[in-house]
Amino acid sequence: MLVKLSDVKLVNRLLLNNVKKVIIMALTKQARRDRIKKRIRKVVSGTSEAPRLSVFRSNKQIYAQIVDDLSGKTLAAASSLDKSIATAKVNKTEQATLVGKLIAEKAKAVNIETVVFDRNGYLYHGRVKSIADAAREGGLKF
Which stretches does DSSP call E strand in the chain? Predict the structure, then answer.
């Protein structure tokens, strides 16, 4: 029987019923990222004093937004689709650096200096790291 690893209850039930052949499939990338994301969001939460800097990364673009989770409002947002960044002919990592600087400028415009970084289930590497470093250089404190 072919069972996904995320079906833990089904796997346990099969093992209790002495099913001999159970093939456990590995998680997909999206399911793995969702698990990590849930685990991170248990700990990371934005307040009005220290809102959450959330990063979303697609194959072509990168987005960052500063969110106050208590009121459920986005305080500032920036992405690689902004005209100043989209017209620049740079690679994706350098785009992320420009987005990090832009989100830091927008945060300062609404009087935000301290944030909590939410990598959103992605590894702290590459574009996610460059957006965080650029936001720090722009004056945000994590």
Answer: 2-4, 23-25, 52-57, 62-68, 73-79, 116-118
Q: What CATH code would you report for 45-137?
A: 3.30.420.100
Domain with CATH 3.30.420.100 in the chain: 45-137
Instruction: Give 19-50 pLDDT, tens digit per residue.
Output: 666 666 788 889 899 999 999 988 888 888 99
Residue whose pair of structure tokens reads 């990063």 in the numeric block: 55
Asked if residues 68 and 111 have their Cβ atoms less than 8 Å apart, the reply is: no
Residue-wise pLDDT for 75-128, tens only, equals 999 999 999 999 999 999 999 999 999 999 999 999 999 999 999 999 999 999
CB under 8 Å to 120, separation ≥6 — which residues? 37, 40, 54, 55, 56, 57
